[in-house]
From TrEMBL:
<dbReference type="InterPro" id="IPR047926">
    <property type="entry name" value="Ni_dep_LarA"/>
</dbReference>
<dbReference type="Pfam" id="PF21113">
    <property type="entry name" value="LarA_C"/>
</dbReference>
<feature type="domain" description="Lactate racemase C-terminal">
    <location>
        <begin position="283"/>
        <end position="422"/>
    </location>
</feature>
<keyword id="KW-0413">Isomerase</keyword>
<dbReference type="InterPro" id="IPR048068">
    <property type="entry name" value="LarA-like"/>
</dbReference>
<dbReference type="InterPro" id="IPR048520">
    <property type="entry name" value="LarA_C"/>
</dbReference>
<feature type="domain" description="LarA-like N-terminal">
    <location>
        <begin position="10"/>
        <end position="206"/>
    </location>
</feature>
<dbReference type="GO" id="GO:0050043">
    <property type="term" value="F:lactate racemase activity"/>
</dbReference>
<dbReference type="InterPro" id="IPR043166">
    <property type="entry name" value="LarA-like_C"/>
</dbReference>
<dbReference type="Pfam" id="PF09861">
    <property type="entry name" value="Lar_N"/>
</dbReference>
<dbReference type="InterPro" id="IPR018657">
    <property type="entry name" value="LarA-like_N"/>
</dbReference>
<protein>
    <submittedName>
        <fullName>Lactate racemase</fullName>
        <ecNumber>5.1.2.1</ecNumber>
    </submittedName>
</protein>
Length: 431
């Protein structure tokens, strides 16, 4: 008995029929109801927060308030839909717009243009409050606030340090290094200095040079994740007054708004992300077949890394992975594709230890995973050279990929897990 799947590849669909008795899991996120009235949901969260008095009691009339907001790389957070409600609540509590500064948490990303500020935060917000951009390499903008227990000197943007009250905002999703996004990430790396970011992110690498990446810095893991624990210490130094974070449905609509204590409310949001996107599996499979979910999630290999990372969590150590990634912009972004120019993974790792970047980490992890398990990438014919340079196997059709997979497995009888939306779904092995 064959089970038919239609998996996305770019703007098209790939048809695949698999023996039903060999399929052990189809990994899909759970349906989640979308919030229909976002401003009302935000207002309710601000007035009935988690482990905190209402926002109106947290701030005092006349306070200066810094709101930390994510940059254009997190445009999916849809700030324009909830920041006006936050500003209105602050106004009602005696904080005029003139006392509020929106801090763009660039980390080490480039500055926004004025037009990009409008695009991300909306015309109303940019017209109401002052906007400052926190750019990590601008050393003069940062103040030393302490040292973490792991020895990282913590520098935070002066506009944040000098505000009477600090409010963290953002979106919560799975994060391949920090476990989950949102929460404390507004501080680290959002408004932290460059040396602090380098120090914190180094915990993603193995303690022993040459051993690659830390096994504790993975999607969904918070306890024992030294990067996350260091981030939490840094955020605590700022003493954030409040948090407002959003969780989204698989379709990208608002699923839940969490507000309140900067750490506890965020952890509640993480639980909701797990409920929607964390998919329990009973066992790992011999063959994992994964699609990112089509364009734009498979626009390049860098975006596709979320898919390869999640697929790797579902495969046996001696298994094989097939990933459908069109990669129409295969060489983008340059600060990712350039990492594959290193002769060896060791060279890639040592360069990353000298100057950490997230694209560099993703490139290293991609190479390390591919060294352990064959990754067959169904992609455009012109991508073959780059895919092979990255240590992966290129195929132009699903039929070709299946033939290579069977050859690698060396048998016809094998278990299969299918992940139709693998960019968003995280397989969680039970027990």
């Amino acid at each position: 008995m064959l089970k038919e799947f239609h998996l996305r590849l770019g703007d098209s669909q790939v048809k695949l029929a698999l023996p039903e008795e060999q399929i052990i899991h189809v990994v899909e996120g759970k349906p989640a109801a979308a919030i229909t009235d976002v401003p009302a949901a935000v207002k309710a969260a601000l007035q009935q927060p988690i482990d905190s008095p209402p926002l109106s009691e947290v701030v005092q009339a006349g306070d200066t308030v810094a709101i930390i907001a994510s940059d254009i790389t997190r445009q999916w957070i849809k700030y324009d839909q909830f920041l006006p409600t936050l500003l209105n609540e602050l106004n009602a509590a005696g904080i005029p717009d003139s006392n509020i500064t929106l801090i763009v948490s660039l980390g080490a990303h480039r500055h926004h243009t004025e037009q990009e500020n409008i695009l991300v935060y909306g015309q109303e917000v940019t017209g109401r409050v002052r906007i400052e951009q926190s750019y990590a390499p601008a050393g003069e903008d940062f103040i030393h606030v302490g040292t973490t227990t792991r020895g990282v000197e913590t520098y935070i943007n002066k506009h944040v340090v000098n505000a009477d009250k600090v409010i963290l905002t953002g979106g919560i999703v799975y994060h391949l290094m920090a476990g989950f996004g949102g929460g404390r990430k507004a501080i680290m790396p959002g408004v932290a200095g460059y040396a602090s970011i380098q120090g914190n992110h180094s915990f993603c690498l193995h303690e022993v040079v040459g051993q690659g990446i830390s096994p504790s810095c993975i999607s969904g893991k918070l306890e024992g994740n030294h990067m996350n624990e260091d981030m939490i210490e840094m955020a605590a130094m700022v003493k954030p007054a409040f948090l407002l974070n959003a969780v989204f449905t698989p379709e990208g609509k608002f699923a839940r708004i969490v507000a309140g204590h900067w750490h506890n409310a965020w952890r509640e949001g993480c639980k909701t992300v797990e409920e929607i996107f964390g998919v329990p599996i009973r066992a790992k499979a011999d063959l994992v077949i994964a699609s990112a979910g089509g364009f734009p999630k498979d626009i390049n290999l860098y975006q596709g890394s979320k898919t390869t990372d999640n697929a790797y969590m579902a495969v046996k150590e001696d298994g094989v992975i097939i990933v459908l990634l069109e990669c129409r912009d295969i060489m983008e972004p340059p600060d990712f594709s350039g990492w594959f120019d290193y002769e060896s993974l060791y060279d890639r790792e040592t360069a990353l230890r000298k100057a950490f970047t997230v694209p560099g980490f993703v490139a290293l992890k991609t190479g390390l995973m591919a060294r352990k398990v064959p990754f067959i990438i169904v992609t455009l014919p012109e991508n073959k050279a780059f895919i092979e340079k990255a240590g992966l196997i290129a195929a132009t059709t699903i039929e070709e990929a299946m033939a290579i997979a069977e050859q690698k497995l060396g048998r016809k009888e094998y278990t299969i897990t299918v992940m139709p939306h693998a960019a968003n779904t995280v397989p969680l092995l039970q027990g």
